[in-house]
């Protein structure tokens, strides 16, 4: 009989709030029973006081890892990968412990990542980097929103806006979860009036303790909340601003993989569309090829999945050399070119200077403009990967969409094959909360 330990962690994130310690332990014990494992110890950390980015010690995790590294633990059980850790460094420590002592990991909802194979390791790394990226994103969005609110002097007191704490700018996780759910329902085709009824039926009130009305709910939905998935929040605001978008797609929203990912049937480039009709009711953003029939895949999820794979790839040593080349920031060059052109125009319009001076000055300007344009042309020919060295998650998050697209295109070909409809079996899921997304449909081939 292999000895197993359980690791449980409470935290402020959504899963931590929804799945308490007792439930984490009970589910892990059931898993142990199914697998014929004997649980010898339970380790519990309380992370609720720590911020998402905190590097505060987790004493129970530390103690457990010491045992594991000493070869005294056969299996570590946890509710999910993100309960075990959201920190890339801790993840690497788990991998190292596995390599040294053969300790393995089993989770209730994340599937089993076989860390003894390259593929299993890759999948586990992707999950870990997505978890880490999500923490960073939430924290960054919160900081940004606070700063912006301060600068704009928005919310000067008065009623506390729903979805935020008493200071009016710090998002409140529990209320933000309500806002996100309502937003998703509305994107799924539910009317605002129905959403109002539902909230009132469930006894959820506004920040002043009153029942919801259409007007108060619209005000909440139109106020961006950093804890709400931005695609969902923006989507619902677009929808509310223009009800006709519900049936006719608006101007094409720019997606990470539009024109980059390919249809597995006809090899045509997939295009993203803001509101594709799904097989069920309602609409969701999706990629499809020109025929519109071969493949349909959730744009939001595919973007996340490919992002995770690319970020994992960027952290591998074999691409490090490509990333280390210095990047050329072309902003200054472009500004200089614009200025030079304007100066040339102004010179031609200046009637007060004699022809010889005109010729001399314009030749000087033109020469400089030629140089700048040559430098710009050289910069364009450089690899989009240049200058990306560093911790891949923050590096990636800093890139704008055009640069991200260039990076994906340089690194990989992404092909999406047809898939079966409906729920994907748990062992094949990429993430436990995405039951309809089947990662086996997506083939990522690395070019570099
Ligand atoms: Zn096709």
Task: Give the helix/strand layout.
Blueprint (H helix, E strand, L loop, with lengths): L2 E8 L3 H5 L2 H14 L3 E9 L12 H11 L5 E4 L2 H4 L3 H14 L2 E4 L10 H35 L20 H15 L4 H10 L12 H8 L8 H12 L20 E2 L7 E7 L5 E6 L7 E3 H16 L5 H5 L6 H19 L5 H26 L11 H7 L2 H11 E5 L25 E5 L2
Parallel strand pairs: 1-2, 1-3, 3-4, 5-9
Antiparallel strand pairs: 6-7, 7-8, 9-10
The structure holds zinc ion.
For the largest beta sheet, what order do the strands appear in spatially? 2-1-3-4
The percent range for helix content is 40-55%
| Chemical compounds bound to the protein | zinc ion
Could you give the distance between the termini? 44 Å
> Helix segment count?
16
Q: Would you list the SSEs in sequence order as H and E?
A: EHHEHEHHEHHHHHEEEEHHHHHHEE
- Beta fraction: 5-15%
Overall pLDDT confidence: 79
What class, by secondary structure content? Answer: alpha/beta
- Describe the sheet with the most strands: 4 strands, parallel
Low-pLDDT segments, ≥5 res: 242-253
Tell me the number of strands: 10
Shape: globular
Rounded to an integer in angstroms, the radius of gyration calculated over CA atoms is 26 Å
Write a brief structural summary.
This protein is of the alpha/beta class.
Can you give a write-up of this model?
- The longest helix is centred in the N-terminal third of the chain and has 35 residues.
- α7 packs across α10 and α13 runs antiparallel to α14.
- This protein is 47% helix and 12% strand.
- The chain has 16 helices and ten strands.
- It has 448 residues and is α/β, with parallel strands linked by helices.
- A four-stranded parallel β-sheet has the order 2-1-3-4, with helices on both faces. Strands 5-9-10 form a three-stranded mixed β-sheet.
- Bound molecules: zinc ion (ZN).
- The site of zinc ion has 7 residues, from loops.
């Amino acid at each position: 009989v292999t000895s197993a330990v359980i690791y449980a962690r409470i935290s402020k994130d959504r899963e931590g709030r929804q799945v308490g310690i007792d439930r984490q332990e009970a589910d892990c014990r059931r898993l142990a029973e199914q697998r014929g494992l004997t649980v010898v110890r339970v380790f519990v950390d309380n992370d609720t006081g720590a911020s998402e980015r905190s590097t505060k010690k987790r004493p129970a995790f530390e103690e457990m890892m010491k045992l594991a590294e000493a070869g005294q633990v056969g299996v570590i059980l946890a509710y999910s990968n993100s309960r075990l850790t959201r920190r890339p460094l801790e993840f690497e420590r788990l991998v190292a412990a596995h390599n040294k002592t053969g300790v393995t990991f089993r989770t209730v909802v994340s599937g089993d990542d076989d860390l003894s194979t390259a593929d299993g390791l890759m999948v586990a790394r992707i999950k870990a980097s997505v978890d880490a990226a999500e923490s960073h994103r939430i924290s960054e969005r919160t900081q940004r929103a606070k700063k912006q609110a301060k600068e704009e002097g928005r919310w000067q007191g008065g009623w506390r806006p729903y979805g935020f704490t008493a200071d009016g700018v710090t998002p409140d996780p529990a209320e933000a979860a309500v806002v996100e759910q309502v937003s998703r329902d509305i994107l799924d085709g539910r009317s605002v009036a129905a959403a109002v009824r539902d909230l009132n039926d469930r006894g959820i009130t506004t920040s002043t303790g009153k029942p919801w009305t259409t007007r108060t709910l619209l005000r909440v939905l139109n106020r961006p909340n950093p804890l709400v998935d931005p695609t969902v929040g923006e989507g619902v605001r677009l929808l509310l601003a223009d009800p006709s978008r519900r049936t006719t797609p608006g101007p094409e929203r720019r997606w990470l993989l539009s024109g980059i990912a390919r249809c597995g049937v006809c090899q045509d480039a997939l295009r993203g569309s803001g509101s594709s009709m799904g097989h069920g009711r309602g609409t969701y953003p999706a990629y499809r090829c020109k025929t519109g029939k071969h493949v349909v895949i959730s744009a939001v999820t595919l973007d996340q999945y490919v992002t995770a794979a690319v970020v994992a790839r960027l952290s591998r040593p074999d691409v490090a050399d490509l990333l280390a080349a210095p990047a050329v920031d072309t902003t200054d060059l472009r500004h200089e070119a614009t200025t030079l052109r304007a100066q040339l125009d102004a010179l031609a319009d200046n009637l007060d200077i004699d022809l010889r001076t005109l010729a001399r000055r314009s030749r000087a300007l033109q020469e400089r403009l030629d140089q700048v344009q040559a430098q710009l042309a050289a910069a364009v020919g450089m690899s989009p990967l240049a200058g990306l060295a560093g911790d891949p998650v923050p590096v990636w998050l800093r890139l704008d969409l055009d640069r991200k697209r260039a990076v994906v295109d340089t690194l990989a070909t992404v092909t999406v094959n047809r898939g079966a409809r409906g729920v994907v079996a748990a062992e094949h899921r990429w993430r436990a909360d995405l039951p309809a997304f089947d990662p086996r449909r997506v083939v990522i081939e690395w070019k570099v």
